[in-house]
Specification:
Blueprint: E1 11-14, E2 17-24, E3 43-47, E4 64-72, E5 81-86, E6 92-97, E7 100-106, E8 112-115, E9 125-133, E10 144-147, E11 154-157, E12 171-176, E13 180-191, E14 194-204, E15 210-216, E16 222-227, E17 230-235, E18 249-257, E19 260-269, E20 274-277, E21 280-283, E22 286-287, E23 290-294, H1 308-321, E24 325-327, H2 335-344, E25 347-351, H3 381-398, E26 404-411, H4 418-434, E27 440-444, E28 462-465, H5 477-492, E29 498-502, H6 521-536, E30 541-547, H7 577-587
Helix pairs in contact: 1-2, 3-4, 5-6
Bound molecules: (2S,3S,4S,5R)-3,4,5-trihydroxy-6-oxo-oxane-2-carboxylic acid.
(2S,3S,4S,5R)-3,4,5-trihydroxy-6-oxo-oxane-2-carboxylic acid binds near residues 411, 412, 465, 547 and 566.
Length: about 600
C-alpha cells in the first residue's frame, strides 16, 4: 500500500475536519444500519483527534464510535481509480461508502484503504461512514478485558497510558490511474563513497507498460536512472543519510506507455547502512550511541491525534536537549513523524502496539490481576496471528524510512516462561521475513532479568527497561547503583549491543527537596546521574533513552498523580531540572 500523493499523475483530497459523530452504547448502529443515512443524534468530532477529551461526558466510553462525513468526488476524476485511505483508526474500524461496506481493519496504528471506484461517480457527493471500536480484548494488540463492576462493565488493560481512541490521523480520498504503482521497496548500501539504491516496484494493470526509476539529489539534479520494475542504482560520491544529517534523495518511479508517463510516484531515499557487529551498533559502519527518549503521542485535548505544531515543537526540544533518537513507544506513530525524523536525521526505534502482554506486571497499579498471560483463554494463537499481522503492517508501512534502524516487536511482555518463548519465536521470524535488513528486538522488563529471560536470545539487540532507584531501591540510589551495575554486567556477557530503552523517575514539577527524595526535581536529576554512571561503566551499552520525553495521561491510580510524571518535560513541554542535565550530558556542555 502506498500513501496518497499529489504527483504528475495522482491527486488527493483531505477529508480532515469536523465529522458527524455518535456513541453507540447499546450497540444498535450496525443492525440498524446507521451508515444508510445521516447518523442519528450526532454531534461533531474533530478528525484527526482522540474523541475522549473533546467533551466532558465521553472520556471513558468504550464500544462503537460512529463517524460520518460527506465529500464531493472531484469532477476531473472520471475514469480514474478512486481510493479511500485511513492513516489509522483506533483500534479497529469498518467503513461504508453510501450503503456499501468497503473495508474493515484490525489494529489502531497502521493504515488501511479500499478501492471505491465502483461506488462513486466523479462530480457527485458520497457519504462515508466509519464505525470505530475502541474495545480491547485478549485477542487485540494491545490486549485488554472487560470486567464487571458494581457500576457496570469496565475496560481494563495492562499498559500504562490512556486508551485514547478515534480517528487519530488523516483520511484521504485519492485518485490514481487504473494502471498504477502499488508498492515500492528500497534498500540502500554503501561501498566507501559509492551508494547503491536497490528498488523493487509492484504495480497493477500494467500490460504494455514500461517502468522507469529516476533518482534525483536534494537539488533536483538527476544522479541515476534505471529501467525495469526492479533494479539497482549507483550513486558515486553519495551524500549519506546519517544521524544529524537527514539528507534525502528523491526516487521517482514511473509507469510509461508509448513514451508517456502514465503513473508517477515519489519515494524519498536516505542512503545509509545499519549493522550489529558484536556489541556495537553501526550506522554507515560507524558506532552509534542512542541518546534520547521513549515518547508518546499524547497532548492535551487532542489526545493521540496527530498535530503538526507539536511534531515540530517536540523535534525542536529533541534538538535542544541533544537527543539523536527516540522510540515510538508503544505503537507505530503517525507517518508524518517518521517523514520528519528522516528529514531531521533523527534515529528511530519503531515499535508495534504489542504492549501489556504481561498480566503479572503492575502489582495492582494497573488494575486487573489474576490472569495468566499466555493461555488458550487469554493471549493465544489468535492473538499471535493478530500480533504477526501488526508486525507485517508496521514493516510494510515504514520499511523505506532511513530513520528507522530497529524493529521493536513488543514492549515488556512476559518473557521468562515457556509460553512466552513459544509465542515469540515465530514472531521474530515474521519480522525478519518482512525485512531482512534491520535488526529486530523486543523490550525486556525488569521481572525477567538476565538468566531468566527466554526471549532475548532471539533479538539482535538487547533493549532493557529498568527502574533501579524508582520501583526497586526506591529513594536509595546507592543500593540502586550497585544492583543495576550487577545486572547490566550480566547482560553484557551476552555479547550483544545493549540499549537502555527506559529509565526514569516520576517527578512533580516544582517539587523541591534539599536531600533528593522521590518525586522531587532534585531526585530525578540524581537518579539520572546515577544511571549514567552505570551506563558509562559498561561498554556494551550503546544507548540511553529516558522514560519519558514528556508527562502523559494514563489510567489513574495510587502511583499516578494527574498522569505519569516521568517526563523530562511537562505535558505542555516545559523543562524540569532533568532536561537541563540531559542537555549538558548529551551536548557535552559543562
Ligand atoms: C514501563 C513501561 C511504560 C511505563 C513505565 C512507568 O516499564 O514500559 O509504559 O509508563 O514503565 O512509568 O512505569
Amino acid at each position: 500500500m502506498l500513501r496518497p500523493q499529489d504527483t504528475a499523475t495522482r491527486e488527493r483530497k483531505s477529508l480532515d475536519g469536523l465529522w458527524r459523530f455518535a456513541l453507540d452504547p447499546d450497540g444498535r448502529g450496525r443492525q440498524d444500519a446507521w451508515y444508510s443515512g445521516p447518523l442519528p443524534e450526532a454531534r461533531e468530532m474533530a478528525v484527526p483527534a482522540s474523541f475522549n477529551d473533546i467533551a466532558p461526558d465521553i472520556g471513558d466510553y468504550f464500544g462503537d464510535l460512529w463517524y460520518q462525513t460527506t465529500v464531493r468526488v472531484p469532477r476531473g476524476w472520471d475514469g480514474r481509480r478512486v481510493v479511500l485511505h485511513f492513516e489509522s483508526a483506533t483500534h479497529r474500524a469498518t467503513v461504508w461508502v453510501g450503503d456499501v461496506e468497503v473495508m474493515s481493519h484490525e489494529g489502531g496504528y497502521t493504515p488501511f484503504e479500499a478501492d471505491i471506484t465502483d461506488h462513486v461517480r466523479a462530480g457527485e457527493e458520497i457519504r462515508i461512514t466509519a464505525v470505530v471500536d475502541n474495545t480491547l480484548s485478549f485477542q487485540s494488540i494491545p490486549p485488554g478485558v472487560i470486567e464487571d463492576s458494581p457500576a457496570g462493565p469496565r475496560l481494563k488493560y495492562w499498559h500504562d497510558f490512556f486508551n485514547y481512541a478515534g480517528i487519530h490521523r488523516s483520511v484521504w480520498l485519492s485518485a490514481t490511474p487504473t494502471a498504477y504503482i502499488s508498492d515500492v521497496t528500497v534498500v540502500t548500501g554503501l561501498d566507501v563513497s559509492t551508494g547503491t539504491v536497490e528498488y523493487r516496484t509492484e504495480a497493477e494493470g500494467t500490460d504494455g507498460h514500461g517502468f522507469l526509476a529516476v533518482l534525483r539529489d536534494a537539488g533536483g539534479n538527476e544522479v541515476a536512472r534505471g529501467e525495469g520494475a526492479d533494479g539497482t542504482l549507483t550513486v558515486p560520491d553519495v551524500h549519506r543519510w546519517a544521524p544529524g544529517d537527514g539528507y534525502l534523495y528523491d526516487l521517482e518511479l514511473c509507469l510509461t506507455r508509448d513514451g508517456e508517463t502514465t503513473d508517477s510516484y515519489h519515494q524519498s531515499v536516505g542512503v545509509r547502512t545499519v549493522e550489529v557487529r558484536g556489541t556495537e551498533f553501526l550506522i554507515n559502519g560507524e558506532p552509534f550511541h542512542f541518546k534520547g527518549f521513549g515518547k508518546h503521542e499524547d497532548i492535551a485535548v487532542i489526545g493521540k491525534g496527530h498535530n503538526d505544531a507539536y511534531l515540530l515543537h517536540d523535534f525542536e526540544l529533541l534538538e535542544w536537549s541533544g537527543a539523536n533518537s527516540f522510540r515510538t513507544s508503544h505503537y507505530p506513530y503517525a507517518e508524518a513523524v517518521l517523514d520528519y525524523a528522516d528529514r531531521q536525521g533523527i534515529v528511530v526505534i519503531d515499535e508495534t502496539a504489542a504492549v501489556g502482554l504481561n498480566m503479572g506486571l503492575g502489582g495492582g497499579i494497573f488494575g486487573a490481576q489474576g490472569y495468566t498471560t499466555f493461555s488458550p483463554e487469554t493471549v493465544n494463537d489468535v492473538t499471535q496471528e493478530v500480533h504477526a499481522q501488526a508486525i507485517r503492517e508496521l514493516i510494510a508501512r515504514d520499511k523505506n524510512h532511513p530513520s528507522v534502524v530497529i524493529w521493536s516487536i513488543a514492549n515488556e511482555p512476559e518473557s521468562d516462561t515457556e509460553g512466552a518463548e513459544n509465542y515469540f519465536r515465530p514472531l521474530f521470524d515474521v519480522a525478519r521475513g518482512a525485512d531482512p535488513t534491520r535488526p529486530v528486538g523486543f523490550v525486556n522488563v525488569m521481572l525477567a532479568p538476565h538468566g531468566k529471560c527466554r526471549v532475548s536470545q532471539f533479538g539482535d539487540v538487547l533493549m532493557l527497561n529498568r527502574y533501579y532507584g524508582w520501583y526497586v531501591d526506591t529513594g536509595d540510589l546507592a543500593s540502586a547503583e550497585i544492583h543495576w551495575r550487577e545486572e547490566l554486567e550480566a547482560w553484557a556477557t551476552d555479547g550483544k549491543p545493549i540499549i537502555i530503552t527506559e529509565y526514569g523517575a516520576d517527578t512533580y514539577p516544582g517539587l523541591h527537596a534539599l536531600e533528593p527524595e522521590p518525586w522531587s526535581e532534585e531526585y530525578q536529576v540524581a537518579y539520572l546521574e546515577m544511571n549514567h554512571r552505570v551506563f558509562d561503566a559498561v561498554p556494551a551499552v550503546v544507548g540511553e533513552q529516558v522514560w519519558n520525553f514528556a508527562d502523559f495521561r494514563t489510567v489513574s491510580g495510587t502511583a499516578r498523580v494527574g498522569g505519569n510524571k516521568k517526563g523530562v518535560f511537562t505535558r505542555d513541554r516545559q523543562p524540569k531540572a532533568a532536561a537541563h542535565l540531559l542537555r549538558r550530558r548529551w551536548r557535552g556542555l559543562q
